[in-house]
Write a structure and sequence with these properties.
The complex is a heterodimer of chains A (about 350) and B (about 180). Chain A is of the alpha/beta class and about 350 residues long. Chain A contains 8 helices and 13 strands. Chain A has one domain. In chain A, the strands form 3 sheets. Chain A has a 9-stranded mixed sheet with strand order 6-5-4-1-7-8-9-10-12, with helices on both faces. In chain A, α4 runs parallel beside α5 and α5 crosses α7.
Chain lengths: ~350, ~180
C-alpha cells in the first residue's frame, strides 16, 4: 500500500521542517510576545529612543558571587523593562546577533528588532544586519514602523551598547564576521541613518573608551549631548532600565546628566575597577575635541592592542580644554590608576 | 574447543537466513532506507537547533570561567596567607601559559593581545606582593582585589586573541594548574 509506506518519510520531512523552523526562530534571550492591542493608549508621545545592543562578541562577565552574566542579554532585559514602563515613549530595541547560517550554509536573519510604543511591545521582527552599512537595516525598519509623530516634536536618543568602538574603521569588531570593518566613523554614519533629519538630542556610548577626542568629534554632528566613558567601562554597562527614570526629561543636557549620575551610582556600588563617565555638550566640546584629536596619538592599529587609555592630561603632558564636559570619576580600588582621583573627561592613547 | 567463526567474526552457530534472504537483508530495502533517512533528518535537525549551545562555549569564555573559579577559591580560603598564595600561584600559572603559548603558536596577529594580557597579569602579581612601585595588597583586601582582578580581565575587551591561541592558552592553563 504505497500511501502507508510514504507516511514515515513524510513524517520525517515534517519533523525536519519543524526543527529547521525552530532553529531559524530561536533567540538567545527570552522573547517577549507582542502585547494585547485591544485598548491602545492615545497619550501623546514625548520620547523616541533607539537602543542598539551589539551581541556579536564575547560578553560574558561574572558578579562577585560568581554568577555568570551575558552583557547583551542583561541589557536587553533592562531595556525591555524600561520600555514597558514608559507610557509616553516609543522605544526601538535592536539586538545585533552573531551571523549564524543554518547548518553553516543557509543565510538567516541575524538581527532582532523589538518595537515598543506607549509601554507595549507592538512589533518583534528579525532582519539581516547588512554590517557593511552600519545601522542601515535598522534605519529602514525605523522608517517603516515608527509612529507618525515627527522626530522634531520629540526628545530623541540613541544608545549603543557594545565593546570599545575603534577610532578608525577596522576588521575584527564583529566576532562572527571578523572581516567586516567597523569603527567610530561607521557608527557616526549609522547614527546619521537613524536620524537623517538632524542630530539626536542625546547619544549614549555604553562602551569602553568612548570619551576620546576623536570619538566625540565624530559623534558631535549627530548629537546635542553625548554620554560616554573615557576609559574602561565594566561589561555590566550603563543600566538600560535607568531610561525609565529619565522618561519625563526632554532637555538633552539634563537627560544625559541624570542618566550619568544614576549609572555612576550603580557602577561604583558593584565594581572595583575605575568608573568614569562624562557628558559632552556637542556644540561646546566639538572644537576642543577636534583640537585634542590633532594632538593625541592616533589609533592607527589594524587590530585591537589592549592598551589602556589614560587621561589626556597625562598623555599630552598638560591641561586640556574641559569646557562643556561634566565628569563622574571614581578611581579603581587597585591597579596602576588607583591613585588618580580626578579625570578631565578626555581619554587618550598613552604615549609610548 | 573454540567455536568456529566465519570470516567476518560472526558467530558461526548463529541462525542463518537462506542465502537469498541474507542478500535481501543486506540490500537497502525501502523500510531500511526510510529508517536511515529519518535518523539522518533527525540528526541534522537536532544539530541545527543545537548549534548555539555549542557556540556559547568557547575558549575565551572558558578562560573567564577559570578566573571566576580562581576568585571563588580565593574567597573561600580560610586565611589571608592562603588567599595570597592562591592568587600568586594562579596568576603566575596564567602568565606561564601565555609564555608557552607564545612559543608554540606562530600567529602574529595574537602577539599584541598576548603582550597586553601578560602585562595586565604581571601588574597584578606585582601589586599582590608590593613590587614595581605598588604597595602590597593589605591582608584584609584580598577578596576585593580578587574581584578587581576578575573585573579588570573581563572588561579588557580590546585584547584580541584568536580562538586557536585562546584554546591553546586554556589547555596550558589547565595542564600547568
Amino acid at each position: 500500500m504505497p500511501p502507508a509506506r510514504a507516511r514515515p518519510t513524510r513524517l520525517a520531512l515534517a519533523l525536519l521542517v519543524l526543527l529547521l523552523v525552530l532553529g531559524a526562530c530561536r533567540s538567545v534571550v527570552p522573547v517577549p510576545a507582542p502585547d494585547d492591542q485591544s485598548e491602545p493608549s492615545t497619550v501623546p508621545l514625548r520620547q523616541r529612543l533607539v537602543v542598539v545592543v551589539h551581541g556579536d562578541a564575547d560578553y560574558l562577565y561574572h558578579t562577585p558571587d560568581g554568577t555568570a552574566h551575558r552583557a547583551d542579554r542583561e541589557t536587553l532585559r533592562e531595556a525591555f523593562a524600561a520600555a514597558r514602563s514608559m507610557p509616553r515613549a516609543e522605544v526601538f530595541v535592536v539586538h545585533q546577533r552573531p551571523h549564524d547560517p543554518l547548518l553553516g550554509l543557509l543565510p538567516r536573519d541575524d538581527g532582532t528588532l523589538y518595537h515598543f510604543r506607549r509601554g507595549r511591545l507592538v512589533r518583534r521582527t528579525t532582519y539581516d544586519q547588512r554590517r557593511r552599512a552600519p545601522l542601515a537595516a535598522e534605519a529602514a525598519l525605523l522608517r517603516d514602523h515608527r509612529a507618525p509623530t515627527p522626530d522634531s516634536a520629540l526628545f530623541t536618543a540613541a544608545l549603543y551598547y557594545g565593546h570599545a568602538v575603534p577610532e578608525r574603521d577596522r576588521p575584527g569588531y564583529h566576532r562572527s564576521r571578523p572581516g567586516v570593518p567597523f569603527g567610530v566613523e561607521g557608527l557616526a554614519r549609522g547614527l546619521g541613518r537613524l536620524r537623517p533629519s538632524g542630530p539626536f538630542d542625546a547619544v549614549v556610548l555604553s562602551t569602553c573608551d568612548g570619551g576620546t577626542p576623536h570619538t566625540i568629534a565624530a559623534l558631535a554632528p549627530h548629537a546635542r549631548s553625548v554620554l560616554a566613558a573615557p576609559g574602561d567601562l565594566h561589561l555590566s554597562f550603563i543600566d538600560a532600565d535607568l531610561l525609565s527614570t529619565v522618561a519625563d526629561v526632554t532637555s538633552p543636557e539634563a537627560w544625559t546628566y541624570r542618566l550619568a549620575e544614576q549609572a555612576f551610582g550603580r557602577l561604583t556600588g558593584r565594581v572595583a575597577t575605575a568608573v568614569t563617565l562624562a557628558t559632552y555638550d556637542a556644540d561646546r566640546t566639538a572644537p576642543a575635541a577636534r583640537r585634542l584629536a590633532g594632538r593625541a596619538r592616533p589609533d592607527t592599529s589594524t587590530t585591537a592592542t589592549g592598551a589602556r587609555h589614560v587621561d589626556c592630561r597625562r598623555a599630552l603632558g598638560g591641561p586640556v580644554d574641559t569646557a562643556g564636559v561634566r565628569v563622574w570619576h571614581r578611581p579603581a580600588r587597585f591597579g596602576p590608576q588607583a591613585d588618580r582621583p580626578t579625570h578631565s573627561g578626555w581619554a587618550c592613547r598613552p604615549t609610548e | 574447543m573454540p567455536r568456529p567463526t566465519d570470516r567476518d567474526g560472526e558467530f558461526a552457530d548463529a541462525p542463518t537466513l537462506p542465502l537469498i534472504q541474507r542478500k535481501r537483508f543486506l540490500e537497502p530495502t525501502s523500510s531500511a532506507m526510510r529508517l536511515v533517512s529519518s535518523l539522518l533528518v533527525l540528526a541534522v535537525g537536532l544539530a541545527a537547533v543545537a548549534t548555539p549551545a555549542r557556540a556559547d562555549v568557547n575558549p575565551r569564555e572558558k578562560l573567564k570561567q577559570h578566573v571566576r573559579d580562581v576568585v571563588q577559591t580565593v574567597k573561600a580560603a580560610p586565611t589571608a596567607a592562603k588567599k595570597r598564595a592562591i592568587l600568586d600561584e594562579k596568576l603566575r600559572g596564567m602568565i606561564a601559559a601565555l609564555d608557552r603559548a607564545e612559543r608554540m603558536t606562530a600567529l602574529p596577529q595574537d602577539q599584541a593581545g598576548i603582550d597586553a594580557l601578560r602585562a595586565r597579569l604581571q601588574e597584578k602579581v606585582d601589586e599582590l606582593h608590593g613590587r614595581n612601585g605598588y604597595e602590597a595588597v593589605p591582608a584584609g583586601q584580598l577578596d576585593a582585589f580578587a574581584d578587581y582582578v576578575q573585573q579588570d580581565l573581563e572588561q579588557a575587551d580590546t585584547i584580541t586573541i584568536s580562538l586557536t591561541t585562546a584554546l591553546l592558552i586554556l589547555i596550558l592553563v589547565i595542564l600547568l594548574a
